């Protein structure tokens, strides 16, 4: 059976419920940290130095305010943890499902969407997910910021999918996110280069093998937990 990833937007053919009008959004403004309806990413201290594909993600309201799950029972509003935004990806509200009531819920995944929880607007979905995660314990390996974003997008049935998880969120940002500026690229990869140079200088080739093995173990854990043993990563 062929499976499509939720961020594969080509030829979805989904019927999306949405409000009669979606008011225009303000422009993205990195200087004021305003990213309307965006996913935002920043490197994590130490962790991203060893595995640069791992970082901290948040999601933004329609007014551009960033919301992120950064600790047990802690959902930040307009205080993005771990530094300024390095990458962002603006999402399309027209690809969300906003059923105003049960009778008008006509998206193709309406049964699974109802199980995940629905919302009547973009900001309503973020508010509901924030309330849910305010009582959750944070764990880098099982319930983290990516889990929060996946919960938001599943409530939105974004792109006709309710299968968003840690891996699909990470891949979406890594493949389609754009850098804020050159300084953000430098801030994301310079520590890794320094760690690589120092590690190889001190320990030689075994350090490089250990670093690659660490990254592969992390990838295997999240892949198995997201697609095979799903109970492992349930918040």
Structural class by sheet pairing and helices? alpha+beta
Largest sheet: 6 strands, antiparallel
- For the CA atoms, what is the radius of gyration? 18 Å
> Widest sheet: strand order?
4-3-2-1-5-6
Give the end-to-end Cα distance, rounded to a whole number of Å.
28 Å
**Strand coverage percent:** 5-15%
In total, the number of strands is 6
* Helical stretch tally: 7
How much helical structure, as a percent, in the residues? 25-40%
Q: Which residue ranges are poorly predicted, with pLDDT under 50 across at least 5 consecutive positions?
A: 9-18
Q: Please, what is the average pLDDT? A: 89
Order of helices and strands: EHEEEEHHHHEHH
User: What's the overall geometry?
Assistant: globular
Structure summary:
The protein has seven helices and six strands, in the order βαββββααααβαα. The protein is of the alpha+beta class and 235 residues long.
How does the SSE layout of this entry go?
Blueprint: E1 38-43, H1 47-50, E2 55-60, E3 66-71, E4 74-77, E5 87-90, H2 110-116, H3 122-133, H4 145-156, H5 166-176, E6 178-179, H6 182-203, H7 205-227
Antiparallel strand pairs: 1-2, 1-5, 2-3, 3-4, 5-6
């Amino acid at each position: 059976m062929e499976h499509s990833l939720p961020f594969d937007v080509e030829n979805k053919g989904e019927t999306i419920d949405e409000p009669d009008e979606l008011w225009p959004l303000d422009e993205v403004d990195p200087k004021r940290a305003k990213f309307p309806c965006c996913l935002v990413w920043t490197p994590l201290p130490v962790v991203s130095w060893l595995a640069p594909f791992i970082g901290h993600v948040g999601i933004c309201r329609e007014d551009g305010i960033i919301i992120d799950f950064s600790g047990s029972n802690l959902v930040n509003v307009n205080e993005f943890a771990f530094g300024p935004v390095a990458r962002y990806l603006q999402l399309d509200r027209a690809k969300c499902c906003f059923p105003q009531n049960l009778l008008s819920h006509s998206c193709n995944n309406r049964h699974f969407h109802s199980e995940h929880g629905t919302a009547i607007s973009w900001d309503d979905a973020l508010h509901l997910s924030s309330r849910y995660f305010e009582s959750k314990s944070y764990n880098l390996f099982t319930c983290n910021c990516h889990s929060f974003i996946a919960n938001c997008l599943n409530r939105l049935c974004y792109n006709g999918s309710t299968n968003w998880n840690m891996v699909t969120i990470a891949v979406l940002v890594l493949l389609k996110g754009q850098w804020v500026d050159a300084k953000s690229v430098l801030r994301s990869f310079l520590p890794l280069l320094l760690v690589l140079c120092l590690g190889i200088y001190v320990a030689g080739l075994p350090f490089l093998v250990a670093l690659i093995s660490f990254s592969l173990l992390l990838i295997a854990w999240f892949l198995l937990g997201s697609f095979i043993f799903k109970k492992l990563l349930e918040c």
